[in-house]
C-alpha cells in the first residue's frame, strides 16, 4: 500500500492512501527527512519506507495536469 504525506499537524503526519482515506501517523514512525508530497510504501510488517520512483511518477503526473490546465506546452 502507498501513502502520500499530505501535511504535518503537531506530532503527526496526515497521510492519504490511493482510496483517499486519511491516516494520522506519528512523526517518529516516519523515515528521516520525510516531507509533504513524499510517497511512502507500507510493508506487510507495517514498516514505512520512501518510494522514490512513485514519488517522482506522481510529481510528473501532477505537473502534466497543471500544464494542461494552464495551457502550458
Could you characterize the architecture of this molecule?
This protein is α+β, with helices and mostly antiparallel strands. Helix content is 25%, strand content 36%. The protein is built from one helix and five strands, in the order E-E-E-E-E-H. The chain has one helix at 52-69; strands spanning 2-9, 12-17, 22-26, 39-42, 48-50. It has a five-stranded antiparallel sheet with strand order 3-2-1-4-5. The longest helix is centred in the last third of the chain and has 18 residues, at 52-69. The protein is elongated. The relative contact order is 0.18. The model has no long low-confidence stretch (mean pLDDT 95).
Sheet/helix structural class: alpha+beta
Mean pLDDT: 95
Strand order of the largest sheet: 3-2-1-4-5
Taking the sheet with the most strands, its summary is: 5 strands, antiparallel
How many individual helices? 1
Low-confidence stretches: none
Beta-strand percentage range: 35-45%
Compute the gyration radius: what is it? 14 Å
Shape: elongated
- In which range does the helix fraction lie? 10-25%
Annotation, overall tally of beta strands = 5
**Span from first to last CA?**
33 Å
Series of secondary-structure elements, N-terminal to C-terminal: EEEEEH
Amino acid at each position: 500500500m502507498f501513502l502520500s504525506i499530505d501535511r504535518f499537524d503537531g506530532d503527526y503526519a496526515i497521510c492519504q492512501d490511493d482510496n483517499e482515506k486519511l491516516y494520522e501517523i506519528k512523526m517518529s514512525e516516519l523515515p528521516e527527512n520525510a516531507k509533504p508530497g513524499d510517497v511512502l510504501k507500507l510493508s506487510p510488517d507495517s514498516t514505512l519506507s520512501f518510494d522514490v520512483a512513485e514519488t517522482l511518477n506522481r510529481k510528473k503526473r501532477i505537473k502534466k495536469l497543471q500544464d494542461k490546465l494552464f495551457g502550458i506546452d
